[in-house]
Design brief:
The complex is a heterodimer of chains A (311) and B (330). Chain A has 311 residues and is an all-alpha fold. Chain A is 68% helix and 1% strand. The longest helix of chain A is centred in the middle third of the chain and has 32 residues. With 330 residues, chain B is α/β, with parallel strands linked by helices. The chains are: A mainly alpha (311), B alpha/beta (330). At the A-B interface, helix 3 and helix 6 of A face helix 1, helix 6, helix 7, helix 9 and helix 12 of B.
């Protein structure tokens, strides 16, 4: 057995608060790095998540001519929900919100809803840049989704289960990242892509006035940006559980290991964006279909052979 | 405890400013950008993203109308300022902050704004016009099929875009199928408010803009900071090592090389500008070729919007020079 048990529904708000707190820490780090880049002290940028939240709470929402308000709202607000649903299956030490038998597939299904949400956020605003941005996201999703799906297959095959608790338990001896590094890297790239995060942030590019975000203001923008951070954090949390051994580790309790690993992966994502320019959406399909996909399939083959030989 | 003033203070610690530059007033815009960095404020990506509008220079009638239109799109609380003297930048931004914190003023502004909500009448025409906007027309695409086409002007107010430039584009999806460039000029700028075309500061400014379009914010910031140090504080010898470092970083970026592989000339132009800046700082003469305004349209036709943005950012068009020489810009 996995040793993971479901907590009562009363803990769900705590899990949500934890996700948002980690996301805020990530945004804080990003703000500190940005402050450093313009020659200001680190500390002056660390407050960015709070300051930006206050700014957007105070800002009035505005709409555009003939906007589809309902779908636009759903698109902007849905990202946070998708991220919360993702972490519901990620165990924190011995606790999990939902010990779903198909947890890995669940995570995958939630990231596919992001396709619709980002597209609605751009389309609903009835703006040319918004539409271009959201179509860029769809085009990019065609490149990241299939490699992600196979990258998720690798740990599931190795653990012989789609339950995330089993996947963590199967890493007691050796973390999966050690013998499936390609799957891990492809997974990380896909997390960056579905979070519309650099270097895969062409859908919200400055060059097209913010793309899917061009017309969003006030609460809509706040929810979209929070959702983006929450997705990045949820991706890091899942990555920590599926590839970095989750709660396994010496000395510290399991839940702390899971948090430390999630934080480290999130910090890696934040640091990476500052070092790289945006990948042009045109260039992505070639790299994804001729590079990442065959490599990750090979990875799954290697993992499968190892599993068969071992049994 | 009253929450509202505390919220207002926190909300204005990182004011988002939409900068509008009138052609020929680059120096003022650089001064504003430097002041934003010093204060920990930031540049907005679109009107919806902005708390404040900062117009750099004296605009003409056409550009003035665009500015008024963009001003209407700021969600509020909002403030605007016009800067025409470099030394007035600090005071202008202080006033922006005061206006943003002035609740009575913002409330009055909000009440006004509710009334001019656009004309929603579709005029009883046969063609359906949702919200008064005509539907997209149709045209043959590159495979000879009929496809919707939309007329979208790029500019004049867009992040990292040449001042005053308007590229009247016909888009099918995100593909540019036709484009015509013109410039919305302002009053002829007085001397000392522009950057000399081909000078090290101008080269760094263009490099910063191109890097921003490429989505490499960190490198773009480094280029802009170096430019501002050159303009406002440091001498050529202090700045040269920074330019060297930046050029090395750009040259080594494999991601940039790979990403730009199908937009020929863009990376070379970027490295060329950084090289020219270094040469000019070292006192070597650097000839300037430049690109004509008319060629911009041809340059972007048949390209996807993202590639078109890069090609425009990499074109060495001297818009300010055209304005100063009084050339026909339409």
């Amino acid at each position: 057995m996995t040793g993971v048990r479901e907590v009562s529904a009363g803990w769900v708000p705590v899990a949500a608060a934890l996700l948002l707190a980690l996301a805020a820490a990530g945004a804080s780090l990003d703000g500190a790095l940005a402050a450093r880049a313009v020659g200001r002290p680190w500390a002056s940028g660390a407050g960015v998540p709070w300051v930006e939240t206050a700014r957007l709470l105070r800002q009035r929402g505005r709409t555009t001519l003939a906007a589809d308000r309902l779908l636009w709202r759903i698109g902007c607000a849905g990202l946070v929900v998708a991220a919360l649903l993702m972490v519901a299956v990620v165990p924190l030490g011995t606790w999990t919100v939902s010990d779903l038998a198909v947890g890995v597939v669940w995570f995958n299904a939630m990231d596919v809803t992001v396709w619709a949400l980002v597209w609605l956020a751009g389309w609903g605003s009835n703006s040319a840049y918004g539409l271009v941005g959201s179509y860029r996201f769809l085009g990019q999703a065609l490149s990241h989704e299939l490699p992600l799906m196979f990258a998720l297959t690798a740990p599931a095959v190795a653990a012989g289960s789609l339950r995330l608790g089993d996947v963590v338990a199967a890493q007691r001896g050796l973390w999966f990242v050690v013998w499936m590094p390609v799957a891990f890297l492809v997974f990380c790239a896909a997390v960056l892509a579905f979070s519309v995060w650099g270097p895969f942030d062409a859908a919200v590019s400055r060059a097209i006035g913010g793309g899917a975000l061009t017309e969003a203001s006030g609460m809509d923008r706040l929810l979209f940006l929070t959702g983006r951070w929450a997705l990045l954090t949820a991706g890091a949390a899942f990555g920590a559980a599926a590839f970095l051994g989750g709660g396994n580790g010496p000395l510290l309790p399991g839940w702390l290991w899971q948090l430390v690993k999630t934080g480290a992966l999130l910090a890696g994502f934040v640091l990476l964006r500052r070092r790289l320019p945006t990948v042009r959406p045109d260039r992505l399909p070639t790299a994804a279909w001729l590079g990442a996909l065959p490599l990750v399939l090979l990875q799954v083959l290697v993992v499968s052979v190892v599993v068969v030989v071992r049994s | 405890m009253d929450l509202s003033p505390r919220l207002a203070r926190a909300a204005t610690r990182r004011v988002s400013v939409l900068i509008v530059e009138v052609p020929g007033w680059e120096f003022i815009r650089c001064a504003v950008q430097q002041e934003l960095r010093t204060r920990g404020w930031r540049e907005a990506t679109s009107p919806a993203d902005a708390d404040a509008l900062a117009v750099c220079g004296r605009s003409g009638a056409d550009l003035g109308r665009c500015i008024a239109l963009v001003w209407q799109q700021l969600p509020g609380p909002r403030a605007q300022t016009h800067v025409t003297v470099p030394t007035a930048v600090g005071a202008a931004l202080d006033q922006v902050l005061a206006d943003l914190l002035d609740d009575d003023r913002q409330r009055a502004d909000a009440d006004d704004g509710d009334m001019d909500d656009g004309d929603m009448d579709d005029g009883g025409m046969d063609m359906p016009m949702p919200g008064g906007i005509p539907l997209a027309g149709e045209g043959p695409d590159r495979d000879g099929l009929d496809l919707d086409e939309l007329h979208v002007p790029l500019g004049p107010i867009l992040p990292a875009w040449p001042a005053g430039l308007v590229l009247q584009c016909t888009l099918q999806g995100d593909l540019v199928t036709a484009a015509q460039a013109h410039v919305l000029a302002g009053e002829p700028p007085p001397s000392g408010v522009g950057l000399v075309h081909g000078s090290p500061a101008d080269r760094l400014d263009r490099a910063a803009r191109l890097l921003m379009v490429a989505g490499w914010e960190e490198a773009a910031t480094a280029a802009a900071r170096t430019r501002d140090r050159l303009l406002f504080s440091g001498g050529p010898d202090e700045v040269r090592p920074e330019v060297e470092r930046l050029a090395g970083r750009v040259r080594r970026s494999r991601m940039l090389r790979w990403s730009f592989a199908d937009v020929p000339g863009v990376r070379d132009r970027l490295l060329g500008w950084l090289q020219e800046a270094r040469d000019a700082l070292a006192g070597k003469p650097t000839p300037v070729a430049g690109t004509s305004l008319d060629s911009l349209g041809e340059l972007v036709v048949g390209r996807e919007l993202g590639a078109a943005r890069l090609l425009v950012a990499a074109a060495d068009v001297d818009v300010a020079g055209l304005v100063r020489s009084g050339a026909d810009l339409s």
